[in-house]
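Comment on this:
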Amino acid sequence: MLIGLAADRRSTSGYAFSLGSAAIAWSSEKQPTVSLSSTEGEYRGAAVATCEAIWLKRLLKDLQEEVSDPTTIYCDNLNNIQLAKTKHIEVHYHFVRECVLFGEVELQYVSTDRQTTDIFTKPLGLEKLRQFSGALGLRHLNVPNMRGGTVPKD
């Protein structure tokens, strides 16, 4: 899960979920409201990712593939992980907190340089683009170069 900030001050949230070695669900969306802090924007993104995680778990259950372990949501903002553990937050944030408490999801820290969902919300250099697309199971990535051709695949 990741947040990027646009000129209109609205954050862009992104997430990707993998099953095995391939991404099966992903999103990159501008948030509908302006956040008062980066932590608030990140936490809203965590809420969207948590909703998707719960939906995917229910879909797998319908397909007779029940997942009993919590889904790990990687977060590069330590404040969000602490916020999900506190009792003193507004009601509209309790959804993520309850999912953490009930063991449906867990928030885990990942350093910003390893946050693969940056691919959805930030301009990346070629090396990071290849690294993150490979982590999402994209194997045939041709990247346009400045002369209109493509950079060869690895």
User: Anything to note?
Assistant: DSSP finds five helices and seven strands in the chain. The chain has a mean pLDDT of 79. Helices lie at 38-62, 78-83, 94-101, 118-121, 126-135. The first strand starts at residue 2 and ends at 5.
